[in-house]
């Protein structure tokens, strides 16, 4: 008779004691950042040599428009001709019916 017995399984199935370690590392708040541009853009140290030559102030001058832009002298000629009010008219009939000027020549012959 099997005296050794089958020893009640004392080992069990070992409850997962390890857990799954909650992500303790995290993602470390980005401390590096984008490194604020410490180098800067080197402020023009050499300087651009203050223009000692000067830019020769326009000595000739830009001849202020002496001719001028001739203010429209011709203008748009206000309709001077107009529509010529009928000046000829129809000449009051002066010719008339020619009153008998010749007359009947008084009988000088006798």
- Main beta-sheet annotation: none
Helix/strand-derived class? little secondary structure
On the 0 to 100 scale, the average pLDDT is 67
Report low-confidence residues grouped into runs of 5 or more.
none
| Percent in strands | under 5%
End-to-end Cα distance, whole Å, is: 211 Å
Radius of gyration over all CA atoms, rounded: 63 Å
Helix content: under 10%
β-strand number: 0
Shape from CA axes? elongated
The helix tally amounts to 0
Fold and architecture overview:
Residues 1-110 are annotated as: Disordered. Residues 55-85 have a biased composition (Polar residues). Residues 1-40, 86-96 have a biased composition (Basic and acidic residues). This protein has 110 residues and is low in regular secondary structure. 0% of the residues lie in helices and 0% in strands. The chain contains no helices and no strands. The N and C termini lie far apart (211 Å).
């Amino acid at each position: 008779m099997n005296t050794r017995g089958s020893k009640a399984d004392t080992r069990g199935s070992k409850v997962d004691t390890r857990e799954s370690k909650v992500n303790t590392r995290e993602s470390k708040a980005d401390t590096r950042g984008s490194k604020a541009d410490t180098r800067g853009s080197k402020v023009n140290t050499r300087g651009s040599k203050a223009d000692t030559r000067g830019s020769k102030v326009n000595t000739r001058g830009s001849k202020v428009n002496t001719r001028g832009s001739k203010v429209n002298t011709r203008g748009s000629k206000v309709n001077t001709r107009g529509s010529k009010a009928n000046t000829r008219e129809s000449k009051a009939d002066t010719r008339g019916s020619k009153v008998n000027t010749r007359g009947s020549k008084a009988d000088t012959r006798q």
